Amino acid sequence: MIKELFTETTRTMKSSMIRELVASTRNIKGLISFAGGFPAPQTFPVETLSKLYAETIANESSFVLQYGASEGDPMLKEELLKWEGYDDITPDQLLITAGATNAIYYMSLALVEPGDVIICEAPSFLGSLVAFEALGADIQCVPLDQEGLDVVALQNKVEELQKAGKKIKYIYTIPDFHNPTGVTMSLKRRKELIEFALAARIPILEDNPYSRLRFRGEAVPTLFRIAHDEYANTDIVTEVVSFSKILGPGLRLAFVKGNKDLIERMCSWQQKVNIAPDNVSQRVTAHFLNRGYMDDHLKMCNDHYRPYLDKMLEATSKYLPPYIQYTKPEGGLFTWLWLPQTMSGDALFEQAKEYKVSFIPGSKFYPTNQEKFNSLRLNFSFSTFEQIEQGMKSLGTIMEEFKA
Questions:
Q1: What residues contact residue 175 under an 8 Å CB cut-off, 6+ apart?
Q2: Tens digit of each residue's pLDDT (9 = 90 or more) over 201-224
Q3: Which of 100, 200, 330, 336 is the Cys-Cys partner for 181 at CB 3.0 to 4.6 Å?
Q4: What is the rounded CA–CA span in Å between residue 361 and residue 233?
Q5: Which three-class secondary structure string do you get for 193-220?
C-alpha cells in the first residue's frame, strides 16, 4: 500500500550506483578495490580530535549539546574567514552545513524548478547528478579537457539553450582535482569561465572538496578567490568547501560562501531539512583551526598521499596497454582512464570481479541517457602499495584479454 503513495519523484529517484556497485563486490574475498572515494584513515587527526572533543564537551556542554543556530556556529565562521584570509566577507555570507552534498542540495532547492537547466562538466560527480535529477533539473553537459571545463563548448551550449527558451540556473564545476577525472582547471580557463559567467549572468557553483590535497605543483586560486580578488565580485561564484577529505567524512561538515541573499535562502532550507549542523563537530573544528593545527595536518595528509599517487601512476604506465590514456593529477584522490571506443568500462567491471579487482565504470558519472562507456575511475587513497601493484597488473591483463 505504501508504495502506491510514493510521489513521482520518489518513484523515479535514482540511488547511488556507486554504492550499489561497491556492494556488489563486498563479498569477494581478497578484493582489491579502487572503487570508493574514501580518504585514508591514517590521515584522520585522531589524537587531536579526541582531545578537542573531550575538552569541548566538558567545558562547553551548555552550548554544544543544545540546539544550534541554523546558519552555523559563529565561532567556526570567524575561524573560517581567518583561515581563508577574507577580511571583507561577513558571517552572513557563510553557511555551515552537514556535508557538502547538503549545501549543493540547498542551493539547488533555492534556485531550481523542474525543467530548469543545470550545466555541468561531463563526466561529473555522481552524488550531485542524482540530487539534480531528483529535483527534476534538466542536466546539460559540456566536455572537459586537460585544462578543465571547455568554455567554448559552454558558450555554444548556453546559446543553444537560450534559443530554445530554457532557463539556465547555474553552472556546476569541480575545478580542483576533479571527481572523477582528477583534472585541475587552469588559471586561464578559470578566468575565462568567470568572465563568461559575468557577461551571461549565469551563477557558478564551485564544488571544492579536494583543493587542499595538493601533493606537488603550484596551487591555483579558487574561482571564488579569483572573482573576489580580480573582479570585486562575491555573487557570481558560490563555493562549497568540504572537510570530509581533510578531517574525516564522519564529521559531516562543510561550509558555503557566496551571495548574502542566496545564503539566507539556503539557510531557510537547512532549517526545514536539517534544523542545524552538528554543534559539537562545528565547535571542535573551530578549535582545531584556532589552535593552528590545520597547516601541519594538511602537510601530513599530502605527504601521506603523494607516494600512493606516484605508485598508481607508475603502475598504470608499467602494466596498462599503451592504447590506454590516463590523467596525471597533482593531488586529489582519483585518476581516470580513457579506453578505446570499442572497450566498455561496464563490461570490464564485470570481468574484473574474476580477478578480484574493482573500480567504478565511467558511465556512472554521466546524467541518465547521456552516458559514455569507454572510461573508468580509479581511487588510490585506500589501497596499500602492494594492492596497487597487483591490482593494476591484473587490470592490464584484463584489458589485453578483453581487446583480444
A1: 148, 149, 184, 185, 190, 206, 208, 211, 220, 222, 223
A2: 999 999 999 999 999 999 999 999
A3: 336
A4: 38
A5: HHHHHHHHCCCEEEEECCCCCECCCCCC
Residue identified by cell 578543465 is 148
User: Cα(288)–Cα(220) distance, rounded to whole angstroms?
Assistant: 25
Domains and CATH numbers, the chain: 2-44+296-403 (3.90.1150.10), 47-290 (3.40.640.10)
Task: Return the pLDDT at 81.
Answer: 97
**pLDDT surpasses 60 at 25:** no
pLDDT of residue 176: 98
In terms of pLDDT, which residue wins out, 30 or 383? 383
Torsion of CA 283, 289, 293, 299, to 10 degrees: 120
For residue 77, CA distances in Å to 46, 74, 141, 192 come to 23, 5, 34, 30
- Ranges assigned E (strand) in 63-137: 94-97, 117-122
- Element containing residue 148 per DSSP (H, E): strand 148-149
Give the number of other Cβ atoms within 10 Å of residue 146's Cβ.
Answer: 12
Reference 379, options 315, 350, 336, 330; nearest CA is 336
Taking a C-beta distance cutoff of 8 angstroms, is the pair 332, 177 a contact? yes
Which residue in this structure is represented by grid cell 599517487? 309
State the number of CA atoms in the 13 A half-sphere of 56 facing the CB: 21
Closest CA to 366 of 17, 126, 15: 126
Q: By the 8 A CB rule, do 285 and 76 touch?
A: yes
The stretch 173-194 carries a mean pLDDT of 98
Q: What percent of the chain has pLDDT over 70?
A: 96
pTM above threshold 0.85: yes
Burial of 75 (0-12, 13-18, 19+ CB in 10 A): middle
Cβ 95 vs Cβ 263: under 8 Å: yes
Quick one: average pLDDT of 300-314?
Answer: 98
Q: What is the pLDDT of residue 22?
A: 60
403: confidence class by pLDDT, cuts 50, 70, 90: low
